[in-house]
Amino acid sequence: MAVMAVDRRHRILERVAAEQTIHIAELARELSVSEMTIRRDIGRLERDGFLRRTYGGATAHITKHLELAFNARALANAPNKRLIGMRAAELIHGASTIFIGIGTTVEQFALFMPSAEDLTVVTGSLAVASLLGSRRLHVVVLGGTVREDELSCVGPIAASSVRRYRADVAVLGAAGVSAAFGLTELDDETAEIHRSIIEQSGRLMVLADGSKLGADASATVAPIGSVDLLVTDASAEVAEVDMIRAAGVEVAVVDPPDGRPVRTRRLEVS
Questions:
Q1: CB 139 within 8 A of CB 176
Q2: Which of 19, 96, 190, 238 ranks highest by number of CB atoms within 10 Å?
Q3: Rounded to an integer, what distance in angstroms lies between the CA atom of residue 234 and that of residue 83?
Q4: How far is CA 104 from the centre of its chain?
Q5: Bridge partners of residue 152, in order along the sequence
Q6: Average pLDDT by consecutive 10-residue portion of the chain (270 residues)?
């Protein structure tokens, strides 16, 4: 039976996490595909920032968080999520405390966020905490019940921990972002944590690739007018972006079709 590309890449990541290396010929036999197919998969994972190629195989590019990204969503739209995370990291300025939510796009933001000894990051994401824990900044994990699918902290302990902090900026992902329904999540546990984070933050930056714009999920987080800055990519529907802008939200679109750099003011913190 043929193995789908995303499942092959998932298997490659699992092998690298377990053994710190893989052998192309061995994996090709195991998955009943050609060595060239495996080489292309490794090349794609390297371009997306998951792996670093070596002679005959691959090694983990970011060992600390690689094992935390083993799902199809981590691979879906990975180049766009990386661009969004990079751009968003450039736009944070002057914050001393930042809330960071959950999701693969905000993980990219954490990856590129500059370190500062006087910066505190509060997060419910174990993946984000793993990325930032060894850097020169102060990292606080919310605690509480850990959801195994997202490796995120939820429940009353996490919600109580949020209320202990006041952040200059919150950086959140979302299952859906739309002018009509605002920010939505797939479950109310995550939505509750994000609602509390917004209440405790001065400014709100939302990171969402184009597939999330115009979409909505079952759990409401906040109206679209609560968002100060939305960072997305050029695959987003232009009409939806226009409606979100009309609601008073500043929108930064990365990787524009004409290739010109996006000029967006930083999210200043007073």
A1: no
A2: 190
A3: 11
A4: 3
A5: 125, 147
A6: 70 71 82 87 72 54 41 61 89 92 90 87 93 89 88 94 96 96 94 96 96 94 97 95 97 69 47
- Going along 23-94, which residue ranges are E strands? 51-54, 57-60, 92-93
> How far from chain centre, in Å, is Cα 244?
21
Q: Cβ-count burial of 162 within 10 angstroms (0-12 exposed, 13-18 middle, 19+ buried)?
A: buried
Per-residue HEC secondary structure of 74-111 comes to: HHCCHHHHHHHHHHHHHHEECCCEEEECCCHHHHHHHH
43: how many CB neighbours lie within 10 A of its CB? 13
pLDDT of residue 181: 96
SS (H, E, C) 203-229: EEEEECCHHHECCCCCEEEECHHHCCE
Instruction: Set out the domains of the chain in order of their start, with CATH numbers.
Output: 5-73 (1.10.10.10), 77-268 (3.40.50.1360)
